[in-house]
Amino acid sequence: MTPSEVNLTHKPMAARDSGTPQALIEAHQAVLASRNLPQWVVTFNPIDLPGVYVARLAFSNAEGAFMTGIAVTDVTLAAIRSCLPPGLLRIERFPDDEPQILEVWL
């Protein structure tokens, strides 16, 4: 199942304006409901959004890993973490990850 099949495309929103946005929780639940594993990939200073922290919703299934259009941005890592859906497990970055990847939340 691809992101378009799950219908998850939104523009990035600022964490400081939204707290824990209901839209993020609903997107996370939509990935779960479609029998996929949701992942929040947290980065700093990505090419498309320089100078900010970004959490992007991705998901994995038997066909591979896919990024969605769901993202939240802010100038602090604490703000990004505070707006992720509750109950997630933080995974440290792996040495071979892209340098902008800080952590992943499952």
Would you give an account of this structure?
- With 106 residues, the chain is an alpha+beta fold.
- It has one domain.
- Helix content is 21%, strand content 36%.
- It contains 3 helices and 6 strands.
- It has a 6-stranded mixed sheet.
- A hairpin with an 8-residue loop joins strand 5 (90-92) and strand 6.
- The radius of gyration is 13 Å and the shape is globular.
- The two termini are 18 Å apart.
Strands, helices and their partners?
Blueprint: H1 3-6, E1 13-14, H2 22-33, E2 37-44, E3 53-61, E4 64-74, H3 77-82, E5 90-92, E6 101-105
Parallel strand pairs: 1-4
Antiparallel strand pairs: 2-3, 2-6, 3-4, 5-6
Shape: globular
Helix content: 10-25%
Number of strands: 6
Strand content is 35-45%
Largest sheet: 6 strands, mixed
Structural class: alpha+beta
Q: What is the number of domains?
A: 1
Averaged pLDDT: 84
Low-confidence stretches: 1-11
- Please give the alpha-carbon distance between the first and last residues: 18 Å
Q: Gyration radius, to the nearest Å?
A: 13 Å
Please count the helical segments.
3
User: How do the SSEs run, as a string of H and E?
Assistant: HEHEEEHEE
Strand order of the largest sheet: 1-4-3-2-6-5
TL;DR of this structure?
By secondary structure, the chain is an alpha+beta fold. The protein has helices at residues 3-6, 22-33, 77-82; strands spanning 13-14, 37-44, 53-61, 64-74, 90-92, 101-105.
List keywords for this structure.
106 residues; alpha+beta; 6-stranded mixed sheet; 3 helices; 6 strands; disordered N terminus
